[in-house]
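Sample pair:
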Amino acid sequence: MYSIPRLTGLTLDGDPSDWGDGGLRVELLSCLEGQLPPPEDLDARVRLAWDDRGLWVLLTVRDDVANESDSTDALWAGDSVELFLTDRRGSTNGVQVVLSPGVDPKHPEVRTQTMDHRAAASRKGPVEVSAARTRTEGGYVLEVLLPWSNLDRHPQTGDGVGFQIYVNDSDGGGVVHRLNWYPERESHANPQALQTLTLAERPSAPIIASATGRYERLRRVCVDVTALAELDGKTAEVQRGDQVLASARLAASDGRAKVELVLAMPARGQGAPLGLMLAVDGLVVAPLRLPDPDQLYARTLTTMGISFHPSLFTDSRLPECDFDDPLLADEVLGRYSLKVTYYDADYQEVTEAEEPGRYGAVVEVTPEHGRPFRRFRTLFRLPQPFGEFDWWKARLTGWVNLPKELGVDAATLDRQPQVLSTVLKWRLMDGLQRDPLMAPALVGLWEARDDPKHRGVADDAIAQDRQWWVGLKRKLYGTEACFPARLTCPTPLKGDPAPTLRDGKAQAAGVNPHGVEALDALLQEWAADTDEGFAVCAARHGVIFHHKPYGLRAGRPMSLRDKSWCASITKLLSATLIMMLVDQKLVDLDDPIDNYLPAFRGIPVETPVTVRHLYTHTAGTWDHWGDDLHDFEEIMASYYPHLEVGVRHSYNGAGYALGGKIIEAVTGEAVPLFFKRHLLGPLGCAHTDVTDTNGGSFSIAQDLARIGQMLLNKGSYGDLRFFGPKTLDKMLPQRLTSVLGPDTTVEWGIGTHWCDGEGLGKGTYAHGAASAATLRIDPVNDLVLVMARNRDGANFGKYHPRFIRAVADCLTR
């Protein structure tokens, strides 16, 4: 908690002279991505004050490279400042403002982007912000006023607000470094990651140092202290009350003063030590917050691998296993024991591998600390002894297309094929012994040796391995008895057929032919001004009125059959799958997930995770991972007591991966196969590959438009019914009061969010994509719009809003 003073007579002009020495001085920000950059690269100092008009922020930045975002929708992706203001710390009722300072010659004026997170009762108008900037040698001064009207408040001395500031620095290459004040990330999603500012007459002491604590190898606490350069030689201490826990002298380093302090690791079960403070030269300058070590132990367990030595073997003796890092396992688990149960390809328990082929190992781990858990691994008994193959003489042949980011072109590979062949040969040899992914890939290919069929991603060797484990897990967990029937979906549609996509003229689609010509001209202009090819499909009333590729891909003209990365549009696709199960009453969105995933049963938690939590990013899961892990539910069950469920909306893909495990447990079909049988195949999406639930799909524009049309039809396509209109309504975004509480302003659906604006109808929805692929489903205008592409490419921000507007301009209403 910090006090900021009332200052009178401030003028918004970017000139700090009227501040005098006033304001709370934050002389040093933190960098959660690692060490602070040298001051000559990036340095920022902040002063804060208030008056009857609002909260005042005076920011002085030194930045050696000016590089601001071209996209007005993503100012944060370049040099920028983000400000968060809420009615109190821990509340989502507030605003977020991003300011691009206008120092980059390409963008000479201050630009602002606002995000409105206010509760409806606080919204008396649009988010307001005023800013002024002056250039300095090597940087800028930015003065900002955030009016109290944004919070619908008339604050008085003693009131408090929540606040956070980020200073984003992009020197190019897509990497953004961030300085921030509160030592925690994701303030837009985590209202606890805000400072509390108390409106006062006098300021708190200046912030002249920062401290970040971390647990090193789970054996000790290391506190990284960074202070102003003039504090070189002063003593830094970690204190708790009158007790000094660690101390050392600051030393000059990279234009600042730094030191590392070391404390003892907290005892298990005691949580993070409280009341720690950083003092410099005897003056307390900042609180020191440490994460919960028990949570860290559990988080570490989620990444600890177990391997068999080897997973490919040649005789009847089944291999043994251990953790990849037994010393780390001993730190996390204490003394542990492993029990392995082996199964043959027919799910029969065995004690030896009598025949070559597939085997599955279920590893039961009993730790000294924590509850028992399981891990699942695929093994392969090779058809002949491994040692009979002479690797020294082997030479791999074939063609590999390396990512261009590696800097190696195809012509160079053609001239020197032996280089990559040699490297891959020895990596393959090593992988046969150590890589747990090698066994499922090779055993699947071996099983397909007499299969003449072409196998796509839905039923290739990797997908078949996933399907095999789905079957074994349903036996182990008993879910095959709970959900015995194979899903029948889609079903015949009663009544008149729903619209299907068909080619037609502009008039039949209810669009202006001249508007379509203008759209085509814009897209040709865009293609000539970018380095990324794309394809567009636009349909109204089921009539495709524009379908065309643009630009180049891999040096040749883009075609309508070139598959593009759908990225997180995959989340919309997999959410469609779970809604089929909801429609058939096999799954309830508000059921706890242990109804479907027995690994989560019997674990005491404060708030159970529901299916809705998984699909609205409120389950406390993190990152994009887990789909390809057969034991992902076991991994997450070990972490279950530490999940912050229903606390915040935190975008991730792991929740969808767990949702995929529910689909598999209920239906007995692995996710790739389920996609093929129940969505892509029936819709005729022959050029779409989906391998996971949250980011692994590739498709063409017309296939995505078919899926969009089915959703536009509220769950039907032609004479097929995938789900009903009421189920589609449950899928659409809504304010998450039932999940995050009555004060939340977050609106999210099951794999959907609102995408209206730029001329499209209110209620337009879909899902975004890191690849910049675009899908819009506009019920007001009976419109489906798709742009398929692999990345944003040059000038995306310049043209994409114009593209959406041009489509909207085609419509006759």
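The mean pLDDT is 93.
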